[in-house]
Amino acid sequence: MNVHFGHRLAVAALCLAGVVAAAPAASGVASAGRITGFGGKCLDVPGGTDGTRVRLWSCTGGAGQQWTADGTVVAASGKCLDVAGGSTGNGAAVQVWTCNGTGAQRWTAQAGSLVNPMSGKCLDATGVSSADGTPLQLWTCTGGANQAWTLPGGTSDAGFCPPGPFGSPLPSPQLSATKIREGFNFLEGPTWDKASQTLLLTNMHDGTGPENVQPSDVLRYTPATGAFTTVIANAGSNGLALARDGKSVIAATHDQRSVSRYDLATGQRTTLAANFQGRAFNSPNDVTEAADGTVYFTDPDFQRADRPDGMGGRTGVFRVRDGVVSLIDDTIREPNGIELAPDGRTLYVGGNATGRIYHYPVNADGSTGARADFASLGGTDGGTIDCAGNVYQVTYGDGVVHVFAPSGQALGTITAGRTATNAAFGGPDGKTLFITSGTPSTGGDNGNFALYSIRLNVPGWPY
Question: Quick one: 198 and 276 in the same domain?
Fold first, then answer.
């Protein structure tokens, strides 16, 4: 039943041991360019004198936004990014200062953040703000979006990813996952919560009410105890992606034909995307978030149910940046799974009804370039990516996860259940692939879906 198709996306990311944002050239020359952070704003210094406070500012390409990263972070003026007074305390000001080789001026890239090894603390946008002029400080690392930085050359995410190179992701070309627990009506949207070491996922129910809309709950699976609990009842969700703040989950919410954010502590719901130019979405299905906070999602019509068609028969791919919804593509019939490559430069979308996986180049401002074919694969549903950039695409009709190298070469398959919907990496080392699969309901919530898992060789990103 197409009304059940759906997915979440986990975004993989590439770790670096140092601040260099891309593989260094043979000459050892450090990467140079802008450093972007919260809200897509640039690391900016308005002057070149000792003690000038460093801040966030809209990217202009000016000299105050040019940095060289190579164990230290050096401005175009030749001054170094520096913790004032060599402090190791929370709230210490970050400034530029004459380079002196002290620990106050050492920075390494860890988990997508810039860490000062002397203190073990992160470069942080104060007040969790992305407004122009937001001063930067030293703060305990939280994994929040206000501590995520994209370095010159494009490297942004790290998280679970250890330094490469990586070998083959699969122990063998044909694998079978192990069932953890069954008895759910229709599972979707797995996403790993690193802070609690648990998996969040959606359990969808059969349609109800005059419009036959499918209700759903967000569940939490705790591997340490084997327990499944309800985190958010009546969430109306399909695909999920843990937000970059680590404290909320972004959900493709078909109940309100929107994209929402749920606070995991309070359950409070905030709408991120309500419509496109006043037109109601069909039924947002799958979602992912970039390091700069840009949200990408697919909008097939699988859960539109008996509600009016606001999109004129088209199904689309959209992005949300700074509260503005933009159309990426409305020429793919039933787009479903959506994933970002490890370096944040490529967006993958599965065309459920077209027999293709597509990819788009992603620009620095979050916009996308021309679409191209990545691989041929019919019935695509959810998917994820590992730290080496290998793409894991689920096919709904046969319960299979198909694994592709970044080049598009088929690497192998993983089977799980009868009707697979989604997959996501998790576990303490990120090497456990969780898969949702089972038998759809034929009425009366009589579906029998299960959560599966399998250990692989390469870790993946939990978002």
Answer: yes
